[in-house]
Amino acid sequence: MPAVERGRKLYEGKWKVLFETGDPARVILRFKDVPDFDRTVARPKLPRRGAMKARIAATLFGLLQERGISTHFLELQGEREMLVRRLEMIRLEVVIRNVVAGSLAKRLGMEAGTPLPVPVLEYSYKSDALGDPLVNETHIQALGLASPEEIRAIREMAFRANGTLLPFFAEREILLVDFKLEFGRHVGRLMLGDELTPDGCRFWDRATRERLGKDRTRRSPAREAAAYQEVFRRICA
Ligand code: UDP
Hints:
The chain is an alpha+beta fold.
């Protein structure tokens, strides 16, 4: 299929740019190689990060769609772009956790690496001014972010996505520690949007527990690049 023509820029974030297309119901999402907050930092960038992210997101969204979980993904376009359905985004970050790590370890005083007996779901209200505070389902309703039916659907889709992704990664010797999802409405229909890439997920090697993909605590850019490429290879090769 010929590439869809890119129109006006709609939005530019730290990691991605959205463009209009000739069809108001579809937009192009382009992944950047370097996030804005890194542009002034003198360190080698991860080569082809945007292209790897596009391929990984397409693979994972494709898998979820095969299992009946609606996503905005339509098709890959060029190297670093996806054609997606235009969504009215819900201002929530939805995190699913299988193993204790990051902010959960700090907040609840749990040791990082502890397996959780049940997957844990957390919502944060997307607000830069407030620092994305954790919220619960009654807060979400009170803030008017989503209806009770939508909240139920978000919860169900998030757990089903986890149920699909866990074995997919396990087969690739990856432990899916936690990951972040975002949802939106397309013609009133709830679906997964944004990205599903190593930049919103914590991946550990199943055997060695070595951090794969993005890791802010990793000191060496060369090691970060190798770990990102390794996760790309395991998902897409
Ligand atoms: N996450 C994200 N965007 C955010 C916050 C978190 O993609 O703004 C992802 C993060 O990559 C991890 C999961 O959500 O996979 C849980 O993150 P956590 O709350 O532990 O925060 P972190 O320790 O990553 O700051």
